[in-house]
Amino acid sequence: MKLHFQQADLAESVNIVLKAVPSKTTMPILECILIDSTSGEIRLTANDMELGIETVAEGSIEERGKIALDAKIFSDIVRKLPNGIVTIETDQNQTAVITCEKAKFDIPGKDAEEFAALPEIEKNEYIEISQFSLREVIRQTLFCIAPNENNKLMTGELFEVRNNMLKVVSLDGHRIAIRNLELRGDCSDKKVVIPGKTLNEISKILSGGMDDMVRIYFDTNYLLFVFGRTIVLSRLIDGEYFRIDQMLSSDYETKVVLNRQSFLGSIDRATLLVRESDKMPVILQICDDVLNLQINTMLGSMDEETIVDKTGKDITIGFNPKFLMDALRAIDDEEVSLYFINAKAPCFIRDDKGSYIYLILPVNIR
Amino acid sequence: MKLHFQQADLAESVNIVLKAVPSKTTMPILECILIDSTSGEIRLTANDMELGIETVAEGSIEERGKIALDAKIFSDIVRKLPNGIVTIETDQNQTAVITCEKAKFDIPGKDAEEFAALPEIEKNEYIEISQFSLREVIRQTLFCIAPNENNKLMTGELFEVRNNMLKVVSLDGHRIAIRNLELRGDCSDKKVVIPGKTLNEISKILSGGMDDMVRIYFDTNYLLFVFGRTIVLSRLIDGEYFRIDQMLSSDYETKVVLNRQSFLGSIDRATLLVRESDKMPVILQICDDVLNLQINTMLGSMDEETIVDKTGKDITIGFNPKFLMDALRAIDDEEVSLYFINAKAPCFIRDDKGSYIYLILPVNIR
């Protein structure tokens, strides 16, 4: 095999597939990037068996062939090569010679036949959204998934297609994030749970804007994202996702409209007095049109008043400050509305259009 | 006590003295910043007994007084307050109330009398250099000190004043860095060893340029740096510094002139094949006007040729690549000259003016 690339093009392609290389594995071949030019295109592939990424690299083929190279060493070398033409050449001993200007690297490769190819999936049903929207919707919900694997379904996100709307849901037992997006065109109803890891990695390689589309294909056990010269294949999480509709309510006793940034600022200041080990709640005391935020810990106490636009009853309620901040950071609106029922019922942060709903359970403060 | 500050002014002053707050100590009072306005100026002080920093903060005094506040909490609060007027007020119970706009913090303080005041030193003899030069000379030499305390003198830098020249020397047993600076004005000869920690911290707070001067006062056991509204007091390291003159030689058998950036780039690429655990040398093979840099490790091999301007004999010599890179990064010149005697003798990188000398011991490659 003999291939030629511009260093920047190769570095970009390697960086994309690198996201699917597992950091720890018992199968050394999975630590490799497959370079395959046998089809006449130069395809780079990485696959950790849950998540696979393949991209077509810009470059020219002098002699077709394929090889698997250790992802870490290969990517480090490509990144640090000078900005010139990079040539990758292999011999019968599976050694790759990488040259660029006067620099020449010899690194041992592995037999490409050992590499686990991405499974073929059916490309019948799909939805299409912009790269920008997919990246945003992931950012606005992914913080809400559970970090550990005690409940596998909680480590993923529900993507539900119904009536040409995409609903994305994540939850961790203390809070729920919901985003609704309108879809263009017709597509049948779908309901899948996508691993959080897939969404995290894909959001890092979605560099396009509002006009660059991602096509998402639905197969029984897999989801396939296709955009630009790249495909991302992810295994789905098995099982029935939580029924969240029964947890949502539009009733409320208190509604507060406030400036998102300044509220975020005051919660952020309050958390200065919280050491990681102790889980002190912030207390919101809403009385007339004043929201008084208080915290009291071993390190000291803090309170801060904000003028708000309140309708309904006065209320005093406690929250994990991190949960409030995560939700407020995920929202772009300048003003947000908080809805309360009582000190033991969940608080909702939602907009009138129904494009987002954040539900947060309160902390018992008595 | 009652004081008022602009948030940005207070944050800047706190950030300066914070550099002298020890990260670990058995004396809780040393974890504090002293705020003392009894003299009519607002002085902030931190002191870890080796290094003390005092700065005069911009602000107004409504009622004089002093208090010691936990540095971490106080600095976190000040940094996160909104950009307005900050008021610090204390009561008889040593509690500080910090208010800014609608935010109000109550934090417990400590008796200012417990705080270890900075020792008074004699201000007779001093030198003066620009903040820029001091920061640069520290950057260009500090990487060469020994990281551990096996030999206390190696953890500091020699500052030697002789004939109106300042010579700064650091070494770690494998390499030596020397910088020479001309001093303005007259001052008597001095020879002190300054702890690396002091130099590291001071270089972070020296923000001034070529026209902002630092005055350095010499006392028996201390050195005092005075610049702007800040003083930094450092204990010196006791003992006779190493005699380096006998290690320096201007004889050579091979001289190589090369482009610093491209040489640095090729050593950087070579180190991609070095895992941290194994200490593989890079080998420089200098033959006619070609320098061939080679490395050969378990991960693969690399070589890269550079055209150089050589005088004298051919030579093959091995180095720890990190030592070469550290020295090359500390130099600003576009072209550098390397001087060799033989494969077992130190290599020198130096300029003709004598403003810098870097000595690096080679690694045995046979």
Summary keywords:
homodimer; 366 residues; DNA Polymerase III, Chain A, domain 2; nine-stranded antiparallel β-sheet; eight-stranded antiparallel β-sheet
What is the radius of gyration of chain A computed over CA atoms, rounded to a whole number of angstroms? 25 Å
- Net shape of chain A: elongated
Structural class of chain A: alpha+beta
Oligomer: homodimer
Greatest interface (CB-CB under 8 A), with counts per chain: A-B, 28 and 28 residues
Largest sheet of chain A: 9 strands, antiparallel
CATH topology of the largest domain in chain A: the name is: DNA Polymerase III, Chain A, domain 2
Binned strand content of chain A: 35-45%
Number of domains of chain A: 3
Helical residue percent band of chain A? 10-25%
> What's the CATH class label of the largest domain in chain A?
Alpha Beta
C-alpha end-to-end distance of chain A? 71 Å
The strand line-up of the biggest sheet of chain A is 14-11-12-13-26-25-24-18-22
Q: Count of helical segments of chain A?
A: 6
Number of strands of chain A: 26
The CATH superfamily of the largest domain in chain A is: DNA Polymerase III, subunit A, domain 2
Pick out the low-confidence regions of chain A.
none
Average pLDDT across residues of chain A? 94
CATH architecture of the largest domain in chain A: Roll
